Amino acid sequence: MDRTILHCDCNGFYASVECVMNPALRDVPMAVGGDEESRHGIILAKNEKAKKFNIKTAETIWQARQKCPELVIVPPRHDLYHEFSKRVMDIYKRYTDRVESFGLDEAWLDVTESKMLFGDGKHIADELRHVVREETGLTISVGVSFCKVFAKLGSDYKKPDATTVFSRENWKEFIYPLPAQDLLFVGRKTTAELHKLGITTIGQLAAFDERSLVSHLGKAGGMLYRYANGLDDEEVRLVNEKDDVKSIGNGITFSHDLTGEGEIRGGIYALCDSVASRMRARDLNAPPCRL
Description:
The chain has helices at residues 13-21, 48-51, 61-67, 78-92, 115-118, 121-136, 148-157, 171-175, 188-196, 202-207, 210-217, 219-228, 260-281, and strands at 5-10, 30-33, 43-46, 72-74, 99-101, 106-110, 140-145, 163-165. By secondary structure, it is of the alpha/beta class. Strand 5 (99-101) and strand 6 form a beta hairpin. Helix 4 runs antiparallel to helix 6 (121-136) and helix 11 crosses helix 12.
């Protein structure tokens, strides 16, 4: 039996939670951000109205205000976000015992064995979107596919509050034209290396010689070749199953080169917040450090 994997992604999670708690924020461009007075505060999340002003996650608040002077900044409340994350994850667990979180706001679900009870993958995805919205006030975007990597591509493909299906029949049509950096674990450095090889799309990556990719990128080259060709067979973990974490990190491609201490600190703070969120989700901690 072919697998049916969902990837569920809460849209603008921090900002969406704040809008649930204070509905008036839905009517104004708003963002969750750090210490504005220090000029090192950065944007952690933004609502749909702020997105229309091209507000970017990880940019400094003062940069965002240049685009949108009336932007409302709300300080982060991580305990509240953990509470909402748990509520959403508990909804997912009603449909399957294979729920693997990927930070506070994302999760993979393997619903292969659940289809006899709840319907096909798209039906389950649409129902999850409805239930999460009704019970929490949040919206999610859901990707449906036969592997984890393509399911994640699906949840990113159309937002907010959307279901995207990449099936055995249609995935090449939709996925091959996507930029190679959209693929899971293709960061800025790998993107630059792929560009040197003339690879800019997932389709070009899939068609490239696998041995050449391994020669240029090492073990990651083989992994990305398999991902691009839909050969990801990694299982979705059981609810209470945790892997042995050797390290937790995060990378992001900024919209421009960072210059000056303020911008660099802002970028680091954004990455630190993401890493801290994923560590909290696994009940991990690390020694304190100063930037």
